[in-house]
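Supplementary Methods, section 5.1.

A reviewer requested that the exact input to the structure prediction be made available. We therefore reproduce it here, unchanged from the version used in the analyses.
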Amino acid sequence: MAAIDESKILGIRAGSGDHRIIGIWVVVVEGRVFVRSWGVNQGGWYRTFREDPRGVIQVGTRTIRIRAVPVKSERVKVAVSRAYREKYNTPGSLKWVAGFERSKRRRDATMELVPAT
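The structure derived from this sequence is encoded cell-by-cell as follows.
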C-alpha cells in the first residue's frame, strides 16, 4: 500500500483480455486504492472495467491481480478528489485535477481497486 501511495503513476491493465498495461494516476484514501478516469471512452480502461472488472496492477516489480469496483459514495468521491489535489499538486497537474473535480462524469468514473479473490 505504501508503494502505491508513494507512486505518482500506477501500471494497470483492465479486463481479462489482451489489453496492454498503461500508466494512470492513483491515490490512497483511508487505506483503500482509488483511480479516476479522465475519459470514459469505449475501449478505455474505465469502460473495460465496467464490462469486466478483473485486471492487474504493477507496483514496482510486482504484478497484482485486482478487481475494480465502481464508487457510489459521494463522501468517498469527495475524499478521492481531495487526495488527488494533495498528491498531484504541481502547476501542470493541477489543471487536470480541477477537471477531475468539476466534471460529474469524471467524478462518477471513480473506481476502487481491491485484491482479486
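The two ends are 17 Å apart (CA to CA). These observations are discussed further in the main text.
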